[in-house]
TrEMBL record:
<dbReference type="GO" id="GO:0016491">
    <property type="term" value="F:oxidoreductase activity"/>
</dbReference>
<dbReference type="InterPro" id="IPR036291">
    <property type="entry name" value="NAD(P)-bd_dom_sf"/>
</dbReference>
<dbReference type="Pfam" id="PF01408">
    <property type="entry name" value="GFO_IDH_MocA"/>
</dbReference>
<dbReference type="GO" id="GO:0000166">
    <property type="term" value="F:nucleotide binding"/>
</dbReference>
<dbReference type="Pfam" id="PF22725">
    <property type="entry name" value="GFO_IDH_MocA_C3"/>
</dbReference>
<dbReference type="InterPro" id="IPR050463">
    <property type="entry name" value="Gfo/Idh/MocA_oxidrdct_glycsds"/>
</dbReference>
<dbReference type="InterPro" id="IPR000683">
    <property type="entry name" value="Gfo/Idh/MocA-like_OxRdtase_N"/>
</dbReference>
<feature type="domain" description="Gfo/Idh/MocA-like oxidoreductase N-terminal">
    <location>
        <begin position="6"/>
        <end position="118"/>
    </location>
</feature>
<feature type="domain" description="GFO/IDH/MocA-like oxidoreductase">
    <location>
        <begin position="130"/>
        <end position="264"/>
    </location>
</feature>
<keyword id="KW-0560">Oxidoreductase</keyword>
<dbReference type="InterPro" id="IPR055170">
    <property type="entry name" value="GFO_IDH_MocA-like_dom"/>
</dbReference>
<protein>
    <submittedName>
        <fullName>Oxidoreductase</fullName>
    </submittedName>
</protein>
């Protein structure tokens, strides 16, 4: 194996802790430095994980940083990733990758000019549950996928996030914030999308924060918070995607895909694990036997139980792919197509018209048991 690639992180907010704590699980990468416009936040994370705290300029100039992880707010993803590429470093972005196809194509041009890689979250589709669903589809157990439903509905981030403001501004909302998990998983399971249609609504113009430390503070809402969409895929499948932060409770499954020969019930794409259920034609629905996929193994406390969390797997796959000279799974093409789908949904919600996709992509390579194990660092 070639040397580990040095990783620096820009953006030391809530999600950064997951990247820093989970990175040691994987080979091919080593966290070395972090930066933030708030140096106190950078210093706190640096102390917590024994890293260097640097300014953004210092991190971009550091010789031992090969890949920069962009964990800034979505509104500045493009600007920060552009700076990273212009500094001659690979970039891996949190979702959503960018906020427009135009921005993504510009980053692609900059990366190709310098021979650099771009990657982007989400990598939750690497999870054992979602790769099991992928294997069922690839093995023909469901026949051709013809339709499906997805539901991601709750009552907003203001009830748990310490600073939820940006979730309710353009560039976020349920489609661009939670949608990437669902849309990306649909693409890896079914393939690219050809066109979309949607209805969008903004039932509340402001929200009241109930989480600490800002409980009771009101924040404005400037983006739709309920969006019902239809996605037509290149293979002819039609999938309903309902996203909302205006729902207190519901009884819908996260994802169901209907094929010519059967149905698969897929757990929440926001997570790596979960139960996959399957029915073959008229036979009763059954829970599939445990699949020995390493990214389905619970490894972290979540609420009252354990959950599987392997975030940073996509970053590790990109680093190893660079060394091996192969395509990485959380690719720019996949991320940009997902952005195309999501921004198309929002445009359709505004215009009331069908929106054709400007981009397409290949399904990322499946990540089976063997391939997943190859991403993990050897236990000491």
């Amino acid at each position: 194996m070639a040397r580990k690639l040095g990783v620096g992180v820009i953006g030391c907010g809530n999600i950064s802790k997951a990247y820093f704590s989970l990175a040691p699980l994987f080979r091919g990468i080593e966290m070395r430095a972090c930066a933030d416009i708030n140096m106190d936040a950078a210093k706190m994370r640096a102390k917590e994980f024994k890293l260097r705290a640097q300014t953004v300029d210092e991190l971009l100039e550091a010789d031992d940083i090969d890949i920069v992880v962009n964990l800034t707010i979505p509104a500045v993803h493009y600007d920060v990733s552009k700076r990273v590429l212009d500094a001659g470093k690979h970039v891996y972005s949190e979702k959503p990758f960018v906020l427009s196809v135009k921005e993504g194509l510009d980053l692609k041009k900059r990366a190709e000019k310098k021979g650099l890689r771009i990657g982007s979250a989400p990598d939750t589709f690497f999870g054992g549950a979602h790769q099991l669903a992928r294997e069922l589809i690839d093995n023909g157990k469901l026949g051709k996928i013809t339709s499906g439903t997805c539901h991601v509905m709750g009552h907003g981030m203001e009830h748990w996030h310490p600073n939820p403001d940006f979730f309710f501004q353009p560039g976020a909302g349920p489609v661009l914030d939670i949608g990437p998990y669902y849309v990306t998983n649909l693409i890896q399971l079914i393939g690219p999308v050809s066109r979309v249609a949607a209805f969008a609504a903004m039932p509340a113009k402001e929200r009241t924060i109930s989480s600490k430390p800002r409980a009771g503070e009101k924040i404005p809402v400037n983006t739709p918070t309920t969006i019902h969409a239809l996605l037509e895929f290149a293979n002819g499948a039609v999938v309903t995607l309902n996203t909302s932060w205006d729902v207190w409770s519901h009884g819908h499954a996260p994802m169901e895909l209907y094929g010519e020969a059967g149905t698969v019930f897929v757990p929440d794409p926001n997570f790596f694990g979960g139960e996959v259920r399957f029915t073959d034609a008229t036979k009763p629905v059954k829970k599939l036997p445990k699949w020995d996929h390493p990214f389905g193994v619970p490894n972290e406390m979540h609420g009252q139980g354990m959950m599987a969390n392997y975030r940073t797997a996509g970053l590790a796959d990109m680093a190893i792919a660079i060394a091996e000279g192969r395509p990485h799974r959380c690719s720019m093409e996949l991320a940009l197509h997902a952005v195309d789908v999501m921004t198309g949904i929002l445009r359709s919600g505004e215009s009331g018209k069908f929106v054709a996709m400007q981009t397409t992509c290949e399904r990322p390579a499946a990540l089976g048991i063997k391939e997943a194990k190859a991403l993990l660092a050897k236990k000491k």
